């Protein structure tokens, strides 16, 4: 859990992902297309990935990926991020965290 918290606070937007997950790919793409450059951690390529996966699930992320942190705070998984995008509040979160300048 400490490792996830430490990694999540290192950049304005952090995404925990799996390289083979189509929803993770879609969420990363959403951020890239908005001009955001998130830190991405592919937990299936990390030697301690299983440990991180359990920590993300304890935070309430089920399935564990994609898990998105904005401004060091856990925001949610794909469903939450897409809801925020559709209702227009994702952009404000990104601006407040310093991930977007416009």
Q: Which properties best describe this structure?
A:
single chain; 102 residues; alpha+beta; Glutaredoxin; 4-stranded mixed β-sheet; 5 helices; Monothiol glutaredoxin-S10; GlrX-like_pln_2; redox-active center
Structure at a glance:
With 102 residues, this protein is α+β, with helices and mostly antiparallel strands. Helix content is 46%, strand content 17%.
How does the SSE layout of this entry go?
Elements: H1 2-8, E1 13-17, H2 22-33, E2 39-42, H3 49-58, E3 67-70, E4 73-76, H4 78-87, H5 90-97
Parallel strand pairs: 1-2
Antiparallel strand pairs: 1-3, 3-4
Question: How would you explain this protein's 3D organization?
Answer:
By secondary structure, the protein is of the alpha+beta class. The chain has a single domain (3-96), classed as 3-Layer(aba) Sandwich (Glutaredoxin), CATH 3.40.30. It is 46% helix and 17% strand. The chain is built from five helices and four strands. It has helices at residues 2-8, 22-33, 49-58, 78-87, 90-97; strands at residues 13-17, 39-42, 67-70, 73-76. The protein has a four-stranded mixed beta sheet with strand order 2-1-3-4. The protein starts with a helix and ends in a 5-residue tail after the last helix. It comes from Morus notabilis. Keywords: Cytoplasm, Redox-active center. Its main location: cytoplasm. Residues 13-75 form the Glutaredoxin domain.
């Amino acid at each position: 859990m400490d490792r996830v918290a430490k990694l999540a606070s290192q950049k304005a937007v952090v995404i925990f992902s799996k390289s083979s997950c189509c929803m993770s790919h879609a969420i990363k793409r959403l951020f890239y297309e908005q001009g955001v450059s998130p830190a991405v951690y592919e937990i299936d390529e990390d030697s301690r990935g299983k440990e991180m996966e359990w920590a993300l699930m304890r935070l309430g992320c089920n399935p564990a990926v994609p898990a998105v942190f904005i401004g060091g705070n856990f925001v949610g998984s794909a469903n939450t991020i897409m809801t925020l995008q559709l209702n227009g509040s994702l952009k404000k979160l990104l601006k407040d965290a310093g991930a977007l300048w416009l």
